[in-house]
Structures are given as structure tokens and as C-alpha cells.
Amino acid sequence: MGDVTTRPSGPGFKRVVVNVFYEQTMLIILILLVIVMTIASHSFLSLGNLFNVVRQFSVHGIMAVGMTIVIVGKGMDLSAASILALCAVANVLLQPYGYLASIAGSLAVGAVCGLLNGYLIARVKANFIIVTLGTQIIFTGIALIITGGWDMRSRPEPAFHWLGEASILGIPVLGWCLVLIMVVSGVLLARSIAGRRLYAVGLNDRAARASGINDVRIVLLSYVINGLICGAASILLTSRLPRIRVGTASDYLFDVITIVVLGGTALSGGVGGIYRTAIGLLIFAIINNGMALLHLPFEYQQLVKGVILILAVLYDEFNRRRRLG
Amino acid sequence: MADAEQILEMSHISKSFPGVKALEDVSMSLSAGEVLAVVGENGAGKSTLIKILSGVYGTDTGEIRLQGKRVLLRGPKDAIERGINTIYQETSLVQDITVAENIFLGRQPTVGAGRIDWKRMLESARGIMESLSIHLSPGALVTTLSSAQQQLVEIAKAFSRDAKIIIMDEPTASITVEDADNLFGIIRKITRTGTSVIYISHRLKEIFQIADRVMVLRDGKTVSVSGVKETSEGEIVKHMVGREIGNLFGDASYQSGEKVVLEVHDLARTGVYRGISFSLHEGEILGFSGLVGAGRSEIMRGIFGLDPVDGGEVLLGGQRLGRSSPAAALKKGIAFVSEDRRLESIIQGFSVRANITILLLLRVLTRLGLISARRENGLAARYVKEFNVKTPSLDQLVMNLSGGNQQKVALAKCLSTNPRVLILDEPTKGIDVGAKKEIHTLIKELANRGVSIILVSSELPEIIGMCHRAAVIREGTIVRVFGKGELTEENLIAAAVGHLTGGE
Amino acid sequence: MKIKAARLIADRKLLVIIVALIVVLSAADRNFFTLQTFVSLFDHIAINGVMAAGMTILLISGSFDLSIGSVMAVTGIIIVLTQRFGMLASVFIGLAAGTAVGALNGALVVKGRINAFIVTLGSMIIFRGLGLAITNSHPVKGSIVAFQVFSQASPLGIPLPVFYLALVYAVVWYVLRYTKFGRNDFAIGGNPLSSRLAGIRVDLYTFLYFVACSFMAALAGVMLTSRVNTGSAVFGDQTPMLVIAAAVLGGTSLFGGKGTVIGTIQGVLILGLIERAMVIFNVDTNYQLLLRGTIIIAVIVIDALTARRRDGAVAAAG
Fold this sequence. Notes:
Number of helices of chain B: 17
Shape of chain A: globular
Number of strands of chain B: 22
Structural class of chain A: mainly alpha
Structural class of chain B: alpha/beta
Number of helices of chain A: 14
Number of strands of chain A: 4
Distance between the termini of chain B: 42 Å
Shape of chain B: globular
Oligomer: heterotrimer
């Protein structure tokens, strides 16, 4: 005898409206931001500025896609930035052997890194925080060993140069890549069988198992895919920057997590998606751009970003409790 | 007996949950130093009674008096402070610290400024245990003790807090006979000091060994309270059953098929169940009855592949089911609806549509290999209609549905794969009467269509009304399999508690 | 098979590993087996050791703190920046600031009921960011040379940090064994529900454990800053991982309820010996990083394979 639930089927209308509001908060904030920025700075809406923003944040966006996938599966990859660094190193090293080799190399390295993470987390069932913090050290270590601690000079072959600098129909190629990856991932996450299973596992791995879903395999896959995406991101990164220093990658982690959480994908798993991450990315990019346009000193920008992360996390926690009723 | 000697009095206690009356006008009294046994089948109200006494639940009506004074228990801590200690089946000790520390948890004796007086703590612990004839070392780490020994530590802990009442919930469930005898000796020692014990168990033989009086609950009401010397096992069983079943189940039998669809041989899992063998025929509804904790769910989970199995085999349609996993079982045609609706049989955070289609994703694909919204909606809508699931839309999150409708979604999900064998674990637990009826009708229709069904249930009327045959599980083994003519409440209960009248 | 090897770590056989390492190192370097080496070894591990003691307390209660590296760095920065108020005052202010972070963490976890990972990750990021902001991303040099005495002075030939280490461990050992504060730590980590029912003020104690952990990190910050007379926001980058690994290696479980400082110091010592070994064998700094990461992973994996989770079930291997 006990936990019987005979709630009326469906929350009241008022509750529905409130729920929608909270679920779409970020979209509303985005719209408000755009309005505010347009008023605050006349150069905000200029094409030059917007394209700059696209180029600046496309790598962030791509990594956020990978991170979203892992987070939906109720995990997180704190080593993502170091995977990015390692793949970038691989990319530069293989450039003398042609585009195909360097692209394949980046992706392969990313996949292997993701495989290690996924195996330790899904199969061995170690704590994902400590594992990915540990692999972060390992991957950074490997990258440092290879580069000897020095910067690597990327020799942008024409093709890569095109990736980094050119534009199609006036929009930077980087932006197209970002959009392409987002659309493909978004569709796959929302509409593929694996995607559906990932959401199930993220929400309730016990129930997912009872439904015949191999939760170990799906979670493993999510980490591998994240690794691949970091690999892809590294290709674009090396095309943009003439020099790679292993240290620079670590900022990405912080930013990428902020983006995903801002968008509204729940850290507790099973909720959210690429669409939300896209909104988070836009909000993040606009805020950063705004701070730059308003000439805010660097350290204060960092501080603002930190505050934003905290607020985003609190918002996520608030939503989590609200969803549980 | 004079009123003042009553340690505990519960008068006209009622407690309801949405849709369910757990306790109705229950009254009882308990004297100092007495052992009162409480018996009843599943759902009779025993656990609600315990939870009320241990402060977890409040009551809707009625009052509780401790030593003549009316009290309102404000929570588990309040109950403990008033002298009501409960020892559950799952240990509540802290594993990695010593016995003495567990006994004195939160009130370690100190010397001077907050320094723990280990010497005094160990000695006091030893003293308490000796007085109860518990022979354990106070400095031993709890994790090194057996579960029987840990139980004794819990008793010592309760005793050391001057418990006036110790409630024990199925204390002998997982201990040996020698440990049980040891336990009884200790209980006798406790009661001699004036502490009372409320002893919940279904093992009638033990009750007659240790209890002074026995109280029988049924359907939330008190059926009888008698001194142990004035009654017998047979009478107790009679009191546990004996209700009007009525015609809740509509038209009864249709024949089940001849063909054997599922065979289980000697299925075993160490420490949980053993020697499980039975066959299931086409279109048959085979019930699994027994008391909570007997192992029925575990057996089903083993067959379905959710939990590991240590021995035996399962044959589906004559073919051996190898090392099973839920995915493999589903593919071969076995579906399982878990009794845990909140955490296992459906995904609470998913929509109705997503839950129904989760097993059938391959069938709703477009040419590109992606899930087609149109096909998915179509599939889900069909089932929602067929099962009469009350939901404002397919998008509705399943957690917002009533229990009955959630169960229908879980059933729809399992049936979407057209299984040959459907295992239902407590399918109508906690569901309102209307939905219950619908689900029962559904189950019968399925059986009519040739689906073989295993129905695990704690509700005897359900077993009797729905099943062709019923197996009774007791402590991990099949005691009996009753045929249609033998399905009576008395038989089922008797088998479940281990009391079989001769000549059966 | 895996479990048996893992038991080796969980048991008190850490000494075996330590002895083995010492033997190997003595063989490789003739000058290794001297008192001087051991003293300098303890001097070297003192900073991480102190932090590990604090982390042990927190781990036992079932939480952990990722922000200790940032706390250490920020404490140092604040000390340097307030040195104009006098040396002792600056140390005091720094300690207070570092401990305050622990209070903040604790409050958010206990009262805000946000999980420890998010809170301490956030703290780590914010306070490091704060540190970078205050110092404009440049290390700041201390102005009071005398401050270095805290680390450099060597009464009886033994550097002060070794004394601090010994003192901290003695205190923590005592607390964990003989005080309610310490014993309740095990209770709360082992079975928080029972602890609550027994009247233990779980929330208050958990808050205090966070404070204790941060205090140790602040202390480590004092020691580090005094050693190099510089405050920098990049100090302590990998510290949380190493410290947690040392504690887990020493037998403290990430799942709570178990742990000893004796084990932790052995864990710290082992990691210290490995670092020394890497120097003696001329291992490239970058390989050192790799090795460090691998050890952390290995330790965590073994803990995951053998630990008893809070629900009482032993983790199944894979």
C-alpha cells in the first residue's frame, strides 16, 4: 500500500504557461539581448561585426554540440578541451601528408580519446568527473610531449586557409561548417534511434535497460562522438589560427559548458538538445561580443563569464526541481 | 489489565492514500513487556501500521497514546525519542565504524572538551550486549558482521536508548534457524525488562514460539486479536482470508491452449531462489502468488534477463534461451512489465508517445533511417485508443498521468512487440478500480488471442479471478502449483505462509 | 582477478609500495638513501600533503572539493597583496579568505542543496578567474622577504614545512579518531539517513567539513607563497586531482564512509616518490604529466571496481 498517484491527467492551464515560460526563458533572453545590444552599440549589427562573431565562436559552437550529446546522456566531458588540443596537434603534424591525412588524423585521435573516456565511464563505471579530469591531464600530457611544449606552427595549406578565411555567399565558411554540424547533429540526436535511446538512458538508465537498451553502449558512443566532434573542431581551429599553443585550449572547456547550460540542456540528463545549445551559443556570443564592443577589460570579462556560468547552473538546478514537480 | 500498564494504545486509526484505504478503524493495545505479533497478507496494512508508529506517516483519524498520554508523532526522530524504535529488514547501521559507535551513534560519551571516551563507550556497549546475551565484540567493524549479527546490534542500539517499544519487521527473513533461536532468546530478555516488542512476520510457527498475542489484519481492518494460547495456526490462516470476492472478474474461464510455450527448469540464483521449474501454455494466465519478499519478482527478472541467474535454463518454444538480456528476451518474444512504475517500467520524463514506441523504433523509420513523426504518432495514437489511455495529448509527459494510465502505457509499450510471453509484475498495484477493471479485461483478451501471460500479484482475488493456474512462491521456492479448482484464498495463503493442511 | 590486485591498494600494504619505490630509487641513484633525501622529500610533499589531509576529511563525509587549487592560489595572492598591513596580518587575511571560500561551498551544498561537483567546480572557476582579474594575469611578487622564513627556516636541519605537515596530520588523526567531529564524519559518509535519525546534525557537520578542507587549502597556500614569495593565479592547476588521487590511493573511498590520514599520507608519499623517480630517471616534464594522469585514472578505476557504494552494494566489475 502506498505511493498511488491519481493526479488528474495533465497540469492546469496556468501551470502549462509557467512551464513554457521557464523552458523557453533563454529564447526570450536572447531576443532581449539582441534588442539591447542593437541599442547599445551601433556597430553591433554591422555585417563585419557579425561575421567576426561567427568566426570567433564557431569552434565553441561545434564543441558545444559534442558536449550537449554527452550531457544528454547524463555525463560530462571535462577533457574536451584537451582532446581539442591533442587533435589540433595531430592535425598540424599530419599536414605535410595532405589534407585527407590531417583530417582523418584529427578525427581518429578524437575518437580514440572519446573511446577511452567512454570505456572508463560506461563500462568500468568510474565517476565521470574524476575520469575526465584525469584524462584531461593525460591528453594534455601527450600533447605536450609531442610538441615539446612549444607552439606549433600550422602551415595553412590553401584548403585550410579557405576554411578559415573564405566565405560562401558572404558568410564565413566556418559559419557554414558550424551550421552544418549543428543541423546534422541536431537531427540525429532528436530523430535517430540512437538519439532516442540516449535520452532514455539520460532520464532513467534503469528503465532504459528494462526496455532492452544497452546503456553501456549508448553512453560509450556518446563519448566517442564527442571526441570525433572535438576532432572536427580542431580542424577548424587550426585553419583559423596560425599557431597552436597547447595551453590555449583550456579556456574552451569553461566556455563550452557555459554555452550548453545556458541553452537549457539539463545537467541531470535526458532533457535538451542542439536547438537549445544553439540559443545558448548565440546568447554567449552576443554577450562576449557586447563586452568587447563596450571595451570591457579582459579580466572583468572573465569575471562576467564566471558569473554567467553560476547563474546558468542555478537556472538549471531550478528547472530540475521544477520538472520533478 | 489496568489502563496504566498499556504502553501503547492505538484507537480508531485510519489512513488513506489517493484511491486506497490502507488502514480503516484499526485499534490495538500493547502492554509493557509483551510481544505482539502482527500478521496479514500483502496489502493488509502491516507496513502502513509500522510507518505510522515509527513516525513516517501521520494518521487521518484516531489517536495514539503512549503510557496513557496522547501523542502526536512528528516524524521518525520524534518517534525514536519517545521510545519507539523500528528495526527494518534493510540494515540501518553505519558499516565502516565499530559496533559500539553504532550503538551510541550521535551520543558518544565524551571526556572533557569533546574528546570521545573510547574506553567508556566500548565498556558500556559491552555491558549492554552482555545483558542481552549478545556475544559480539564492541570494537568490531559492523561490516565484518553477518546480517543476523547486525540485526542484534540494532536491537542493542534500540535497547540502549531505553526503547519502550521495538518494532521488528520480518526479522527472521534472511537468517538461519540457529540465529533465529538466538534472536528469540534475546527478545525474551528484552521483554523481561519491560520493553515491548511488535513482531511482524508471516512465519506462523515462529509467532507461536515467541509471541504473547497475535493480531490479524486484512484489507486494512483488524480481524482478530487473540492470545497465542487461545488460537491455532489454522485459525490464523482463516482470519487472514475469507472475504467476498464478488464478481469482479466478469466471465470466467475459457480454455488455455495445450501447447507449452515457455519452460523453466531448475532456475536458481544463490541466496534468492532455487529449483524454479514450471511450464506455461499458450493462451494461459499463470499466476505467481506469495508474500512480499518471497522472490517472485526476482525470478521474473531472472527469466527476462534483467538480473543474473546462477543456474537452470529457460526454453521458449522449445529453444534454449541463452545468456539473457532484456534486449535478447524482447527480441525472442518475452516482454516484462516491472512492478516499479516510478523507476523501471516506464520512463517518467518521456512523453506518452515516446514511451509507447521505445521498443519499436525500427518500425517508425523513414527511408533515411530517422524516426518519422507521422509514423510514430500513428503508432502511438493507435495504442492510446486501443488501451483507452486518458491523456490530453501524445506529448504529455507520462509522469503527469494517473497510475492507471501510466500502467496502460507500460502495457502498450510491451505489447507493441507482439510478444508470445508477457510477464506482468503487480500490474494493478495502486491503481483505481476503474482502471483495474480495464486492465483485467485487456489481459484476458490477450490470453484469448493466444498470448501466454505470467501474472505476479499480491492480490488474492486477482489471482483467483484471472488465472488458470497459480504457483505459490515461498522463500525462493515453488511450494505448490494450484489448478483452477483449487484456487482459493485459503489455499494460497496457507501455502504462502508454509502452513499446509493435510490432504491437499 | 582485478579485485584481488585492487585489494592490495585498499589494504595497508601501501608500505610495500613505498618500500619498493625506495628500493628502486636507491638502486638508481647512489645518493638517494640518505636522511637528507627523505627530509627534502617530506618538505616537497608538505604542501600537497596538507591539502590531502583536509580533502580526506571531506571525502569521508561523502563530498569532495574541486576548488582547493584555486583556494590555494587566491590565498597566496591575497597574502602578497595585503603585505603592506604587515606579514602576520596578511597571512591572517589570506587564511580567512581561503576559509571563507569553504564556507561558501558548504553553504551552497548544504543549504542550497546543489551538488558538490557543480558548486566546487564553479568555485574553482570563479576564484581562479578572480585571481587572474586581480593580478592582471601576472604573478605578483611579495615584498616582505622575511615571509620566506615560513618555508625556508630549518630548525634542527628540518625545514619548517615538514613540521607543519607533521602537526597537521597529528591533529587531523586525532580529530578523526577521538572527537565527535571526526567520528560523525564517518557516520555521515557511511549512512547519512541513520545519522540524521540518530540526531547528528548532518547539515552543520557537512558545512564544517567543507570549511576544514578549504582551510587546509588556504594553509597550503600560505606555505606555497612563502616558499616562492610569489602569488600567482595559475598555481594549483592539477592539485585537486592529485590530492584526491592520493587520498583514494591511501584508502579513502570516493563514495564516503571510509578513510584514514595514515593512508592518505602514504598516498601522498607514494605520489611524491614517483615524482622523484621521474626526476631521477630524467623523465621529460611532459611525460611526467602523462604519468601523473595515468596514475590518477588507475587509482580511480580501482576504487570504482572495489568500492561499496552508499546503497551498500559492492560495485560489480563492468
